[in-house]
Inverse folding.
């Protein structure tokens, strides 16, 4: 079973998380998600346990438990449906159009313009 663990203290290590879950049974893998630019923990991760009964017991007992002063969130990780995944190559302009017209040269001499000006 894949288990989501959230609200983790930023200082927690994967070995510490593994140790917490191994108290309930075998652990296949532990992954704390970190920011790819800073390397700092994002405060959540995933634990994989091969035995579903042990995994459920870990979820039941660790959800809401205090770890290094923070109440953690522990639940079964469900894969996202295909339609909800973020696509980074779908030719949409995303947040580019946020803020309306853009105001042109309001960025201190930036000649790129703003908003939709100059686009076809």
């Amino acid at each position: 079973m894949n288990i989501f663990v959230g609200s983790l203290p930023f200082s927690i290590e994967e070995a510490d998380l593994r140790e917490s879950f191994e108290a309930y049974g075998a652990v296949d893998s532990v992954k704390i998600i970190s920011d790819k630019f800073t390397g700092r923990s994002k405060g959540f991760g995933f634990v994989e346990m091969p035995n579903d009964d042990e995994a459920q017991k870990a979820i039941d007992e660790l959800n809401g438990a205090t770890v290094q002063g923070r109440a953690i969130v522990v639940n079964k990780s469900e894969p996202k449906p295909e339609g909800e995944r973020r696509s980074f190559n779908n030719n949409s302009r995303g947040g580019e159009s946020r803020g309306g017209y853009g105001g042109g040269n309001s960025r201190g001499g930036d000649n790129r313009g703003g908003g939709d000006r100059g686009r076809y």
Summary: The radius of gyration is 22 Å.
